[in-house]
Design a protein that fits this description.
Layout (H helix, E strand, L loop, with lengths): L8 H13 L4 H12 L17 H8 L8 H19 L9 H9 L9
Helix pairs in contact: 1-4, 2-3, 3-4
Length: 116
């Protein structure tokens, strides 16, 4: 019988909060980041076609299991939660029609058009 490794209760909360706030599936986020990163000035000479930050790191965390998280991953999750919550709390007067605001959230893996 395989026993699940015990995780710090704080990590459990961060995991749940992260997956509640980052509501875009990983493949959709990857496509969005590639779209955001395309263009003349977006991609540098990096041969691995680096995706824009912090979305790239968020995407990496989305592919992991809870037991595989590193301290850096947990920090990425914390930062994403904070940034998403700050942006949603500062909803502009145009609301969802404000493309700059909505795109900033999409860069973090949060789509305001997806109902919770």
């Amino acid at each position: 019988m395989v026993r699940e490794a015990r995780l710090d209760p704080e990590v459990e909360v961060i995991w749940d909060d992260f997956h509640a706030e980052v509501n875009v599936p990983s493949e959709q986020l990857r496509r969005w980041l590639l779209t955001r990163g395309s263009g003349e000035e977006a991609f540098g000479p990096d041969p691995d076609l680096g995706l824009p930050e912090p979305g790239r790191r968020i995407l990496q965390v989305l592919t992991k299991r809870k037991v595989d998280l590193t301290p850096d991953d947990i920090e990425v999750m914390r930062n994403a939660i904070e940034q998403i919550r700050a942006l949603t709390a500062a909803k502009p007067s145009r609301g969802n029609a404000d493309d700059e605001w909505r795109h900033s959230l999409l860069d973090l893996g949060h789509d305001v058009l997806i109902e919770r």
